[in-house]
Amino acid sequence: MSAACALADAGLGVQLIEQRGYLGGRASSYLHPGVGEIVDNCQHVLIGAYTNLIGFYRRIGVSERIHWTTEMTMIEPGGRRSVLGPSLLPAPLHGLPKLLCASAFSLADKLALARAFAAILLGKATDPSESLGHWLRRQRQTQGALDRFWRLVIASALNGELDEIGLNYAAMVIRGLFLDSAEAGAMGLSTVPLSGLYEKVPAYLAARGGAVAMNEYVEGAAWDEDARTWTVYTRTGEVVAEFVVLALPFEATQKLLPHLPTEKAGERLARQIEKHAHRPICSVHLWFDRPVTELEHAVLLDSPIHWMYNQSLLQKRPGNYIELVVSASRNFAALKREEALGLALGELARFFPAAKEAKLEKSALIKEVRATFSVPPGIDSARPAAVSPWPHLFLAGDWIQTGWPSTMESAARSGHLAAETLLFATGEPRRFLEPDMEPRGLMRWLRR
Ligand SMILES: Cc1cc2nc3c(=O)[nH]c(=O)nc-3n(C[C@H](O)[C@H](O)[C@H](O)COP(=O)(O)OP(=O)(O)OC[C@H]3O[C@@H](n4cnc5c(N)ncnc54)[C@H](O)[C@@H]3O)c2cc1C
Q1: Where are the domain boundaries for CATH 3.50.50.60 in the chain?
Q2: pLDDT of residue 126
Q3: What pTM was computed for the model?
Q4: Which fold would CATH assign to domain 281-373?
Q5: Which ligand 1 atom is at minimum distance from the Cα of 370?
Q6: pLDDT per residue over 268-287, tens digit each?
Q7: Dihedral angle over CA of 248, 254, 258, 261, nearest 10
Q8: How far apart are CA 175 and CA 178, in angstroms?
Q9: Whose CA is nearest to atom 48 of ligand 1?
Q10: How much is the pLDDT for 161?
Q11: Which residues line ligand 1 (CB under 6 A)?
């Protein structure tokens, strides 16, 4: 969608073909038949540093639908709370006062975290061939810092185990969330179900001579060298186009490869795709007969459930709707529905005693098995550029070479990159990539 809207803006007639009956892919909402409610496939969080995603939202006129918050509440079993967030100190010190006051961490944990953050600031966490887990052992992190910060906040943001995560990606998340500036680390949550963020896309494209075709599965494409056009085959017909952008996850790209013209270079792409793997994220959606917490969201410490989002408050929805999210959730994803629900309800009551008294009215469990691609050490060589082995065909999708982990920002960035690369090929280049957020405070000098 970010590629389509940027290219439509540049005057191209864009046809967007989507296999589902709604837009948004892995970041979307739909009517859940079991509960009769519109639910997100999972809560999605953005941060201020997502400049391309925010630029895309601005382009289509929905950026005001994001609610921004700078505070992260961590809750220990039993209910004791710590709040992380910025102070008036300049970056990178802005988060320090609240971290020092956080009862969730012992003094030894805080010193260990400060040591690791300092190492990142000093550029000692850049080796893309080292795993986060290995580096943390070298940084002598305490069990508390490992369990309550590195595993829960950082590994869960990257949806992997500590030893599966490339150090460069972890350092990038730390800089964005905690060091560069309070603005870069602010968390954004949609105030509408996710697909509501894209409802203007069909009209945006139509007003610029384009169209969206939904429920259309792309099966293959053929290049006509004489006409210099592509014919894209869908299950019900075909579309002839001068240029094609394939904005698919790596698995769907892999499925399409045998149905594209055979090219030697395509083999390299196939080998790159083989190096990718996906990881699951699960969400449990619960409706109660009464409120169970006044918090909008929270991080749950020492629990198999990681995040709580109060959707009644965030999306101003009737009823008492709580969503629980489990990242890096291979074990949770293997549970049967009743087991997963029992575990989620038990954990919720450990953190929010009001949940014990509340009556559960309905519930939904969503397992996204292919939620995100993992970013192990060395993955960068398996992330292709926007230029493909075929003429007039460009690659997009969160997994291409954007420098970002599997996020909506990477997806939006990849779309802008593909649009730029495509227009360059037409001889009428235009810039769509949004500049990164400038570090603030002392970080302006420290990042140089
Ligand atoms: C459970 C979960 C939680 C997440 N949480 C966060 C978060 O908090 N923050 C964050 O930034 N990111 C999060 N992500 C990651 C984020 O959703 C993805 O990185 C992003 O949506 C990827 O976008 P994309 O356009 O690259 O791919 P997709 O969203 O997968 O889009 C690809 C589209 O192509 C369509 N398609 C595939 N094959 C075909 C075909 N042959 N023909 C036609 N159409 C086809 C699909 O239906 C889909 O709509 C989460 C993802 C999941 C699943």
Answers
A1: 2-55+204-276+378-426
A2: 87
A3: 0.97
A4: Polyamine Oxidase; Chain A, domain 2 (3.90.660)
A5: 53
A6: 999 999 999 999 999 999 99
A7: 50
A8: 6
A9: 25
A10: 94
A11: 17-20, 25-27, 41-42, 44-46, 217-218, 247-249, 252, 281, 368, 371-372, 397-398, 406-411
